[in-house]
Structure formats: structure tokens, C-alpha cells
Amino acid sequence: MKRLFWRLTMMFWTIFCVVILSFALTFYLNYEKNYSQRLFEIDQDVNRIGMEMDANTREYIRLVKSEEYKLLKILKENLQLIESLNNDDIERLIDELGVGASIPLQEDRAFYLAYLKTIDIINDTLDQTKKLYREDYKIIDFKFIPFYCHECNRERLQQKLNTLDIVKMDENLYLVNEEDGQNTTWSVYQLVQYNDQILGYIRFSYETLTSEQFVSQEERFTRSLYYIGNHLYNENNLPFEIQQKLESADFEQASQILKDEGYYINRYISENNNVKMIYYQLNRSLTWSVLEETISLFEFSTILLIFLFLLVSYILFVVIIRPCYLLIEYVKRCGEGDYTVPRNLSSIWKPSFLMVRNAYLENERLLNVKDKQSQELEFAWKRALVASQAKTLFLAKVSHELKTPLNAIKGYIQLLKLSIDQPKQRKQLEIIEYSSDLLLRHVNELLDFSMIEDGKVKLGIEKIDIFQTADKVEELFLVEAANKGIDFNLIVDGKIPHELYGDEGRIKQIIINLVSNAIKFTESGEIRVIFELDYQNETDAYLSIKVQDTGKGIASHKLESIFEAFTQENNTISRRFGGTGLGLSISKRLAEAMGGRLTVESVVDVGSTFTLFLPFSKYLAEEDES
């Protein structure tokens, strides 16, 4: 008895450990999934930022090219118009423009006037375009700067084109970083050429992604380094020591430096392969942020289940297991003559302790009274019978008490399965459910045993089709035997009548116990279940159901004891294969209750054959009486 309750206790704690390990494994898998998702999101963001820069740059260049086309078109139209004027009209135009003495030779005068007229028109147009697109493209400046008789403009442009932060996008098209100190403004320079003569350049200036306005909107920009070629042009919030290393490092060297310093990096290289970006974030900060996100509803539900399991285990320990240990210990002390009842017992358990104490006191009194030996022996027998009934009642009560929390656990498992869709998590819940079903099966064995001990087994009489019963048995064990690599064969005698009467549920219970034992103790070979007709007459049929295996076998001196309650062949089997040791005992007593018998033949290392002999009726009792 003490061993039984010790096993129950260890089983509960084993389930608890399985729950803890399942939670830890699930948490780790979720963390890995969230970590991968975070890296994927960073990669998407970096690519999005880079593609936005490329898209904006393409749009800026499109605007500049469009305005260059407009400028040349206006210039041609003005030149055609001025060439069609007479000298008086040209003189009035010169006075209107106020160029006076700066007019060039006669052959260039028409082009010069058309050029000056075009400058005024195109700058007005560019100013309107700047106002129209200021918010969309963050335009700072958009104008045409002429070269004609303005050599200083040429020198200023040449100085810009000699800087390091410059990207040549096309012939006569340049992208220049304007402000070395703030690193916030970029300009597109488009040289305007007419008949192999450079007239000037269109300058389109705009705010870049590193400006304060953009940084306040997008936090990721503050963790990025921007390169033109291999030259770093933006500020960063890295530690001073790392900034010193990056000052003289090119793009590839900077990437390696950040990796060596414990940073996760993600890179983007623009379409023109000259503008580059490095996103960086400390690995430890990335890890902590992912851990914070991993705490989800599933983890909360699992923690709640663990606390619920602990609560149920504590209640079981206080209400059932602890009193059971105390009762076993008290029985031992009563055998040594100490009848002191433990304190703080509940009203439910106190009668059991008093019953044990009274039984021992009565037994002691009977031993001391020699002159009334026969009367006292009869009285002692009655007391022993009461104690046996108390044991049966105790087993029934314990089994019922165990089934209540087990049903609660199974119910909560079903609720969790409704709220969880991930296959791995459902698999873990199925393991918990399987363990609960196994424990419930042991409890049901205890209930069956207590009912048999108490003589309360009720047999039902119903119509049975032995062939269908055999098919059900085959369905139950065919897959299990195949998974273990064992051949499973079921043979049914064709002479067996298709319609018999008996308790099919109890018959299946016996066969299932026998086949389960056969699979459990057979490592290789074959298991055969044979249904044979031994004898029949007009009213009855006698069947023998054999379960043969090629397992380890049973020693000859153990063949009788295996049918005793709570008994297995040896302790090694109990530790290796588990079980309560009630299956064969219940099966034998059920067979006897149905008017049959259960026998065994076995040879060590060869195999065992369990034979169930059962009588069946061909007609219901009511039909016979009618």
C-alpha cells in the first residue's frame, strides 16, 4: 500500500516536471521565432529606407531633367521670336532688359537676348515648382544659375564638384552633399548645354534622411551610418571610442568594426552602388527587446496551468496522500503497541484511524483471553472482515477522490487545446492528456478492484457479435504493435455463432488487459489472439480466447502469484514497465464472476499463453421463459 501511494506521488511530480519542461521548450521556440521575425522586420525596414532614398533620388532627377527640357524649349522659342524682330524692336528689347553696353557682337546679340529672357522665365517657373512640391519633396532651393558672362558661377560650381561627398549620376548630372558641418542638405546639379555650349546649371537642393525632421519621425535613422563611396558623411550616436575607429574606416571596415564591438548590422547599397547605409543595434539590447515581446498569452496560460497543477497537487497531498502515509505509519506503530492517534486529523479520516486502532486493540484482547478462545477467535474474524471492508472502502474512496481532480485537469487541457493552434504546442498538450488518461486508467483499476473485493460487480447481458468484438480489439492494438515492430495476428473460428449473449464490456476489458501485457513484455516476434469454439449445444456455447506472445515469459514458480492483487513478477518489471499490478487479478476475478476461468502457460525466454474460458448463452433468459 505504501508503495502504491509513493508511486502516485511520484507520478504527480513527474507530470509537473513535464509541464515545466514543456513550458521552457515552448518559451525557447517562441523566442527563436520572435528573434527571427525581428531580424526580418529590420531587414525590411532597412530595405524600405534605402528604396525610399533611391526612389526620392530618381524623382529629384526626373524633376531636374524635366525643367532642363523646359528651359531649352523656352530658349529655342525665344530665339526664334527675337530673330524674327527688326532692329528697332531689338533695340527696344535691349532697353527693356537693361543690358545696354554689355551687349555682345551683332551676330550673338539675338542669342544673348533670348538667353536673358529665358533666365527670367525659367527661374519664375522653378520658383513656382518649388512652392508646389515643397512639402512632398522637402525642397530647399530650385533655380537656374547662368554661366554667360558670369565666370564666378563656373568657379563656384567647380569647387562643389571637387568635394568628396559627390556622386556622378549621369553625364553633366551630379549629386552633392552641400553642408559638411550639419550633413543635412543634398543638391542635384544638372549642367544645361545648348549647341555644345554650357549655359549654366540647374540646382535642386533638398533635405536628406539624416535631417532632424526625419530623425524625429523614424527612430531607425538614428542607428544608421551613410556613406558616399567609402566616405562617412553623417553623425551618429555611437560611443566615442567607436566613432574614432570609424573616422578612418571605409564601408567594409566599418561593418567589421561594428560586428566586433557586439552590434548586429544590416546593410543597403543603392542602385548607383555609391550611396550606402549600415543599420546597427547592440545584440544584447536586441535580445532583451525580443525577450520582452515573447511573454504572450500562451506563456501566461501555461503559467496559470502550472499554478493550477500545484494547487491541485497540494490539495491531493493534504486531503489524500498525507493521511494515507500517516495511516500506513499508524498501522506500523499499532503493530508495535503504540496506539496514539495522530493529531489534527480531519473528520473524514479519523474514523479510519480509530478503526485500525480498535482492530489492533481487539486482536490484542483476544490473544490475552485464553479461556474464551473460540468465541474470541470468531469475534476476531469478524473484526478482520470489517478491517478488510474498511480497506476496500478506503480504496474506493481514494479512487473517487483522485478522479475528481483528474477530471478537472483533463477539462482544462481540453480548454487549452481550443485556444492553441500551433502544432508543437498541441503535441505537448497531447502528452499531458495521455499521462492524465494513463493515471485515470490506474484509478479505474483501483475502482474495479474495490468493487470486486466488495462483491458489487454487476454483469450486463447483451447481444454480442464475437467477430465485431475481435475487429475492435484488432483496431485498438494493430498500430501500437506495428510501432513496436511486432506482428499482430487475430484469428477467429468461423464456427462461432454470430449472435451470443454476455457482458461484452467486461469481456473486452479482460482481452485488452491480456493484449496490453503481451505488447508491453514482447520486444520482438509475434502476438496472436485466437477465438475458438470449444463446445456448443442448443442453448449455450463455450469459447476459449487465447493470447499468445513471444515475450520474456514467466518463471514457473511465479505463475500463480501473478494473479494476486498488486503483484507483478518482480520489482524490476514494475520499475521498467509501470502499472499497478491489478490487471491480471481483476481479469481473473471477472472471468470467474462470468462463470469462466483464466489460465496461463509460460516458458522463460520463449513466451506466454493466457487462455480465457467463457460460457455464452444463445438466448436471453426472458426468451427461454416465454
For the sheet with most strands, the description reads: 5 strands, antiparallel
Q: Tell me the helix content.
A: 55-70%
**Net shape:** elongated
Tally of alpha and pi helices: 17
Count of beta strands: 16
Oligomeric form: single chain
For the residues shown, what is the average pLDDT? 77
Radius of gyration: 48 Å
Strand order of the largest sheet: 1-5-4-3-2
Q: How would you characterize the overall build of this protein?
A:
The chain contains 17 helices and 16 strands. It has helices spanning 2-83, 87-97, 106-137, 151-161, 212-217, 240-247, 251-260, 283-294, 297-335, 350-368, 373-419, 423-453, 466-483, 504-520, 571-577, 583-593, 621-625; strands at residues 139-146, 166-170, 173-177, 185-194, 197-207, 224-228, 231-232, 263-269, 275-282, 462-464, 487-492, 500-502, 526-536, 540-549, 597-603, 607-617. The longest helix has 82 residues, at 2-83. The chain has 626 residues and is of the alpha+beta class. It is elongated. Helix 1 packs antiparallel against helix 3 (106-137), helix 2 crosses helix 3 (106-137) and helix 9 packs parallel to helix 10 (350-368). Residues 210-218 and 573-578 have low confidence and may be disordered. The strands form four sheets. The protein has a five-stranded antiparallel sheet with strand order 1-5-4-3-2, sandwiched between helices. Strands 11-13-14-16-15 form a five-stranded mixed sheet, with helices on one face. A four-stranded antiparallel sheet has the order 7-6-9-8, with helices on both faces. The protein has four domains: 41-206, no CATH class; 213-293, no CATH class; 297-358 and 401-447, no CATH class; 462-625, Histidine kinase-like ATPase, C-terminal domain (Heat Shock Protein 90), CATH 3.30.565. Helices cover 58% and strands 18% of the residues.
